Amino acid sequence: MKTAIILYELNQLASLDVLFARGSENGKTPLIVSLDAEIDFALEKRGIPFVSGKTLQNRTAPSAYIRAEEMVRAVYDHNELSFLSYRNISCTRSLRFSAHIYLGMLLYHIDVLERFMEGAPKIEHVVVPIPIASTSKTSDVLAIEESRIVYEAARLVTERRGVRCEPYDTHSVTSRLKTHWQGWVFTAKRTLFGIALTILNTVIALRPRRPIRIVASDYWRNISPTMRQLPEAELILIDRKEAFSAGLKNIWRHNIRFLHINHFLSLLGRQRARIHTNACIKEWMNVRKSVFASLNFTFCGADLNQTMERVMTRLIETALPDIVADIEAAYALYERLSPDAVLLRASVSRQRHFPILALVAREVSIPALEVQHGGEYLGPGSGNHNHAAHFLATYGPLVCNEFRTLGYEQKRLLPIGSPRFDAYIADAQKKAARQKESSTLTILSNTPTMDINERYGTYSIEEYFKTLGGAVRKISNARLLVASRSNILSEFNKEARARGFVGVNYESVGTTPLTELFRRADIFVCSYSTVVYEALIYRLPVILTAFAPVEKMMANFHFSHFEKAGALAIAHTPEELREIVGKLAANPEARARMSSAAEAFMKEQFSFDGHASERIAALIRNWKKGGDSRA
């Protein structure tokens, strides 16, 4: 009997000897399947033969991404789930995004493992390590399901072939104790932090109420530009940890209080929520079989009906009590605080309170504004189609047009710009005024994110560095700067760069802010990211890479408008990247033309003029005066 061992997390290599022995019980050497580039590197160093997940990827179509959105829409828009609401607020708005993320990852792994099994017909036994699911009160309700997602994918793929799929528990007594200890420490810190905030909130509450009161759930760095424009306003922040970012000076200046939504839930409200939740769970148990009997959840030949029923049941049993309680608490919050506006960094999120705050605000006639802080993909397969906030402050006319194609009313869409980008404008103008002092061509790049729903995780990073290195290596006077937004996977990124940039004059600049690096750059190369807008603000020629099928689809949906206007170039293949980099590197006039085209396009399609914060402040003042807040 031939055994395959599936590895997908680096720490699973510690159990490799045990797994190898388990797979060799019948005298046959097991086959190692790695689904992560970092594991590939480690196995290569040990001289262990393996099948790389890089060879198993779907390079032709974004089928998993598209199918995940279709499945989520089918179940959450089902007419038999209309009972999942409370006080005129749909509970499914807070459930569906978690399901969408889970399904996207599950289908990706089904797709990969299906290819493996097709190419390995002699495999009769598959072993999948199960990692430790470290969860806390702030973890997503599907965290445990997600920790078993590779095993679930393998089970679904092997089951229909009659192949035995066996989970291997990597939990040791020590690891379990460590997990419990970390959970206890987290709870203790959270409790002490809550006590400190209660004292701070009590002091701030003694101060007189200011003319404008804002409830917000956002990062302080995003809110602070707007608050500076509203000295007459006070702020209630739902994100309590932002107290550290705001600091005591700003807390005092803006009368900031940090209040969890559950702070407003009374005993009577909790009881009402519990009664309603129990009734909903009972109803779900009655209808779930008929709901899934009417739906088709198949992908690559695997039947996901039972999996989806289990996941939905977990969501409803574990998340619904908090969702209903949060709806009750949101009504109480607005009644007690009487805010003039609600500001949100998102209204489609795995964090349940975002859509709840937006939807309840609409019910009680309080204007809720979601401020765009990142690139918005609204094309096929996107889980971001259903924004709950009544008003959307977008980057500009182009994004407004994309929302309108989805059926959003024009009066809900406000081409505000970006408060976060306001500070970039003056700095970008200074950069444009500087003269080039060196003959060296500086190419700047950031490290791609690792979202397997959009790319291929670590394999995309490996491919990106290898391809970028191949393009830059041919330019004799080029110097490459590589930045990263975080230190996550820093050791892997270091090795991937070393492998991809052999013979390249490059420097890793770590987490140095891109705004500092833009001043030194002649060309910017990146994958699909918000940093594209930042680079264009700094008038840099931009090359966008889109190698994975989902990346290509996303880039063509949104950034094709930029490319058509000559504002940037999109490289769909490594060959195209080498060609585009070579042409721009050799031709300063071509770089200048692209920068000029980008400047004109950004002025026409985006509201990045340094005054977004002022526009939001004016909007809030108008709402306070009784302006049309329900549009």
Please characterize this protein's 3D structure.
With 631 residues, the protein is of the alpha/beta class. The protein has 23 helices and 22 strands. The strands form 5 sheets. A 7-stranded parallel sheet has the order 10-9-8-13-14-15-16, sandwiched between helices. It has a 6-stranded parallel sheet with strand order 19-18-17-20-21-22, with helices on both faces. Helix 10 packs across helix 12 (320-337). It is globular. The relative contact order is 0.10.
Number of strands: 22
| Sheet/helix structural class | alpha/beta
Helical amount: 40-55%
Count every helix, treating DSSP H or I runs of 4 or more residues as helices: 23
Distance between the termini: 67 Å
Mean pLDDT: 91
Comma- or semicolon-separated keywords:
six-stranded parallel beta sheet; 23 helices; 22 strands; 50% helix; 14% strand
Topology:
Blueprint: E1 2-7, H1 16-23, E2 31-34, H2 37-46, E3 51-52, H3 63-76, E4 85-86, E5 89-90, H4 96-119, E6 123-130, H5 143-147, H6 149-159, E7 164-169, H7 173-205, E8 212-217, H8 220-228, E9 233-237, H9 242-253, E10 257-258, H10 267-293, E11 298-299, E12 302-303, H11 305-318, H12 320-337, E13 341-344, H13 353-363, E14 368-371, E15 391-394, H14 397-405, E16 413-415, H15 419-433, E17 441-446, H16 458-472, E18 478-483, H17 490-500, E19 506-510, H18 514-518, E20 523-526, H19 531-537, E21 542-545, H20 549-564, E22 569-571, H21 574-586, H22 588-605, H23 612-624
Parallel strand pairs: 1-2, 1-6, 2-3, 6-7, 8-9, 8-13, 9-10, 13-14, 14-15, 15-16, 17-18, 17-20, 18-19, 20-21, 21-22
Antiparallel strand pairs: 4-5, 11-12
Helix pairs in contact: 3-4, 4-6, 8-23, 10-11, 10-12, 12-13, 16-17, 16-21, 21-22
